Each structure stands twice: as C-alpha cells, then as structure tokens.
Amino acid sequence: MKKVIHIVGARPNFMKVAPIHKAIAARTPLQQLVMHTGQHYDAKMSDVFFADLGMAAPDIHLGIGSGSHAEQTAKMMVEMEKIFLKEKPDLVSVVGDVNSTIAAALVTSKLAIPLSHVEAGLRSFERHMPEEINRVVTDRLSDLLLTPSRDADANLLKEGIDPKRIHLVGNVMIDSLLSSKEKADQLPTLKQLGLTPRTYVVATLHRPSNVDNPKLLAGLLSTLIHVAKKVPVVFPVHPRTRKMIAEQGLAAELEKTPSLKLVDPMGYLEFLSLTSQAQLVMTDSGGLQEETTALNVPCLTLREETERPVTVEVGTNEVVGTDPTRIREAADRILAGDVKKGRVPELWDGRTGERIADLYARVLGVETKRAFG
Ligand code: UD1
Q1: Angle between helices 11-27 and 352-363 (to 10 degrees)
Q2: CA 164 to centroid of ligand 1, rounded, Å
Q3: pTM of the predicted model, to two decimals?
Q4: Catalytic site positions
Q5: CATH of span 2-170+348-364
Q6: Using one digit for the tens of pLDDT, what is the confidence trace for 176-216?
Q7: Where in the chain is CATH 3.40.50.2000?
Q8: What number does the ligand 1 atom closest to the CA of 99 have?
Q9: Nearest C-alpha neighbor of 289 from the set 279, 302, 277, 304
Q10: Smaller CB count within 10 Å for the chain: N or C?
C-alpha cells in the first residue's frame, strides 16, 4: 500500500495536518504516518492540540526540542533520514513554514522522495524572517505546491514554478476552525476570565523580530497597556515572549494594569472560544490573521508586512506595523466601532482536507473511496 508521512513539529502544524489526516483516512486507502519532530514539546504547546483536534498520538516522535536554527534543523534532518530510509514513504507532506518543514524538505528531496508543501507560495518578501527562508526553500524543493489563495499561485508563477505542480486547494487551517467552533463555543473560557462577548481584546506576540528586540517589545507592550485601560486584554504569552519579558524586567510594568491579563499559552479549543468572541485581536501571528478573517473578527497585525495579503484585501486584517502611536490609533478607532468589513476568501470552506486527500490519491494512483464533490 502507498504510504504518506506527515510532518508536524510546532504549534501551527497540528491544526493543518489534522484535517488532511482525517480526510485521507476517510476517502482513500493510503497508509499514513504522523512524524512529530519535537520542535514544540511543552504540553501546552503540543499535546493539548492533539487532544483538542481529536488526533491520535504521533506514530513517530523525534524528540528534538529547542536549539539554534542550525542545531535544531540539523538534528531533525539526521533523525528524519533514518526514518525515511526505513519507512520508504511514497509521499512526504509538510505544512507551513517552520523549521520542521524545511528539515523534512531537504531530507526528502535528497532521497528523491516526492514532497508536497501545503500552504505553498506565501511570501512576506522579508528574508530576515526565518519563516520566509523556510517557505522559499521548501517551495523550490516541492513536487506538489498546494496553495491557500490565488496570491500564492501568482508568487510561485513569478518564481518560475511549473504551473502543473501548483494546486489551489484553499486554507486547510480553516477546516479545523469550522469543525471545532461548536465545541469551542461550549467552553466556559469567557466566564472563567470574567469577560463578556465583544467587549475584550485578545493579543499574541511571538515573532523574533518583535519580541527579541527589547525596544520594540516594550513599545508593543505599551500599546497593550493603553488598550487594557479601555477594555480587558487577554494575552496568552508564548514561551519566547515570556523569557524576553522576564529578561528585560518588563513584568512589573505590566502588572500595574490588572485588566491586561497575562496567561499561559492556551489549547486550540480554549483559544478559539476566546478569539471568536473578541472585539479585536492584536497579533504578529500568521495563522491568527487567517482565523480572524474566517471568524469575521477585526485583526490588527503588529508587523510591517504580511505573507497573507488576502486577509487584508478580502478579510478583516489591517497591517499596522510596530509604531506604538499608529497601533494605538488603529485600536482606538476599532474599539469606537469603526471596523473594516470583511468577507471569507475563496475556498476557505472547510473542505480543503478533502481536496488534498483526493489530490494525493490521484497523484499516487489509488482510487478514492468517494468521488470529490
Ligand atoms: C516557531 C516557528 C514559527 C511559529 C511558532 C509558533 C520556526 C522558525 N518558527 O517559533 O514560525 O509561528 O513556532 O509558536 O520554526 N519553547 C518552549 N517550549 C516549547 C517550544 C519552545 O519553552 O514547547 C521556547 C524555547 O525557549 C525555544 C523558544 O521557545 O527556544 C522558541 O521556540 P522555537 O520552536 O525555536 O520557535 P518559536 O518562536 O516557537
């Protein structure tokens, strides 16, 4: 039987692989294995997502953990090579732009194993971002490039990728969102945090370009304090950010504003229950720009650029940069009720996993159990 290996490693990978795995199991006779690199290892950064998404534990766990980019990527590559040689997959499927993705792309292509990149073609055009390097290299090496939106197709065509390898399948993360929303809505998250719907803000910050720069981080945190003086702000803090806040001695300042609630990273369902009822989300995350667009919740992206322009052109996202004055002005405007209207982009319909499963079955020459429709 033909075999597909899915690679996961960091938080945003789990909600992308879950719907693909489920659809392949339901619609095709393909054998599948999930390989977890261990890039994220804390229970709140990894295990909780498997439980929330109804995914079985990974079939293979490499247990790599944190490290410098070279160290982490190289360790993953060494272990992956052994597994690929043993398992001999017919296709390796990678998602997104994390270090686990580029590690698998490099090993797979050197072993001449067909490689599929889900979420191909996104570009921030900022080479200082590790994710941009990961995206560009992975796309170069991929045999199948599965895109979430037409802007991604255009980027790949401009880079000379053969159009026959590009497949517009839609946004697979939205499959997880739509199938989890009802469950998330039943959670008592708002009550536990003393919040009422549409009268609070959710904030996240974890990009190295924002949080590893002390001056920038202090400026961004000052905008959260500003907003928290008007409405409660819930801020689930990524480990990288928590470390920087401690190192820079910024915690005392944040504690002076109790309506700015610093909490631990949240599970998928708990976080979805929070974002879906927020008045505004302020973030530097890529996935959250997409989720807020799908949820029709206003989003301010605290970066100078986005690799997900469809969320701005069609959705609720506004890229406001990192200047505190500009961020405060935009947040004040939205809290005063002046919000940008958005629509849900094409093919963000909850069926991307099915389209991917059918494509993999076709490419690997196996019959699908059900015709796509
Ligand atoms: C990674 C991805 C980023 C993604 C993000 C989601 C890369 C280059 N970056 O960034 O694209 O948006 O995941 O969260 O792949 N740490 C823990 N516990 C964990 C994992 C990490 O404490 O379970 C700490 C460690 O100190 C580690 C740091 O967080 O050094 C950064 O983790 P890392 O995986 O290197 O990058 P992220 O910033 O999480």
Answers
A1: 60
A2: 34
A3: 0.96
A4: 206
A5: 3.40.50.2000
A6: 999 999 999 999 999 999 999 999 999 999 999 999 999 99
A7: 2-170+348-364, 179-336
A8: 15
A9: 302
A10: C
